[in-house]
TrEMBL record:
Pfam families: DUF3991, Toprim_2. Gene3D superfamilies: 3.40.1360.10. Residues 141-209 form the DUF3991 domain. It comes from the Bacteria. This is DUF3991 domain-containing protein.
């Protein structure tokens, strides 16, 4: 039968723990290892994982936690055991410390796991590491202010997973293939315009209106994401089940084949709205898309702004300046 210690014996045992057990031993037993790269002669850092470390001081007799703001963040080896085991009583700490009497530090060092970061130009990596713009953010302000896009159309793009915010207020618009895989982003901002695909080539941005499950009766194709969103804003027939796509400029052969396949998803006898700029490039795009629509049994219709060399976002901006409702 265990004998009960007197208060004097208890204090003597606690002092024995402080004198004979190094904080390093306690940390090693808990899975921490010496991080040489972030240690000095006076302060030795022991790390378990990134963001979880303890500083050992006074030659192993003391410690402190650089991450925790709670009241007990430093002390002796006894405090350390209780800190590492929240809720542990002093009696429980004594039981644990008795097991460590006579142990010495192993000297094992912390080795950081190699970073497995994907190449920065991988569009999926870039996309997944960015957040959607929100009211008041730089990209949101650029799109609603400079570009005059209403908030409801940005909400729709965010809801359909088509919009992210990049650096310096740049808006990123997602392009995907017919299988739904992200292939790249149109990038538009106050100081930048481009496309990032990581070498995979352009495909199409796709935004749907009307009933989600309904087969589209219209396919609306434009030259850029901002022009397409502008046209949706101005379109009196956007309530119809429609698929709006942006090519992000000229289409690659792979994108053209995907567009041809996409025409087959439109309701038989439906329309293909070619909403391109009023310029020579718009004429060339019409000459490509209209025959493809006819081959698919659909009716091609071209819609361009009345003013020469104008695009649909310019129309939207002019209406916003004049206070004319879309």
């Amino acid at each position: 039968m265990a004998t009960r210690q007197t208060p004097a014996q208890m204090n003597e045992e606690l002092q024995k723990f402080r004198d004979e057990i190094s904080c390093i031993v306690v940390l090693e037993q808990a899975g921490y290892r010496f991080d040489r790269s972030e240690s000095s002669a006076r302060h030795r850092r022991f790390r378990r994982v990134k963001g979880d470390s303890i500083i050992v001081t006074h030659g192993g007799k003391g410690w402190w936690d650089p991450h925790n703001s709670a009241s007990i963040t430093k002390g002796s080896v006894i405090d350390l055991v209780r800190f590492l085991n929240p809720g542990m009583t002093l009696g429980g700490a004594r039981v644990e410390l008795r097991k460590m009497l006579g142990l010495t530090p192993s000297g094992a060092e912390y080795i950081a796991e190699p970073k497995t970061r994907k190449p920065a130009r991988d569009p999926r990596y870039m996309w997944n590491n960015r957040h959607a713009p929100r009211r008041g953010s730089a990209a949101w302000t650029y799109l609603t202010g400079t570009r005059a896009l209403p908030e409801w159309i940005l909400d729709m793009a965010v809801e359909q997973g088509l919009l992210r915010e990049g650096m310096k207020g740049t808006a990123w618009f997602a392009h995907s293939d017919n299988a739904g895989q992200l292939t790249g982003m149109e990038m538009r901002g106050p100081e930048y315009r481009g496309f990032s695909s990581g070498g995979g080539g352009k495909r199409l941005l796709r935004l749907r209106t009307g009933e989600k499950e309904a087969r589209p009766v219209r396919l609306v194709i434009g030259e850029s994401a901002i022009d397409v969103l502008s046209y949706v804003t101005l379109d009196p027939f956007s309530f119809e089940p429609s698929l709006y796509v942006s090519t992000g400029g000229g289409m690659s052969p792979e994108a053209l084949e995907e567009f041809r396949a996409l025409l087959g998803t439109v309701e038989p006898g439906g329309r293909v709205m070619i909403v391109v700029d009023n310029d020579a490039q718009g004429d060339r795009y019409e000459a490509i898309y209209a025959p493809m629509a006819l081959q698919a049994g659909l009716t091609p219709l071209r819609y361009s702004p009345k003013a020469e060399d104008s695009d649909w976002n310019t129309v939207l901006q002019n209406r916003a300046r004049q206070g004319v409702a879309a």
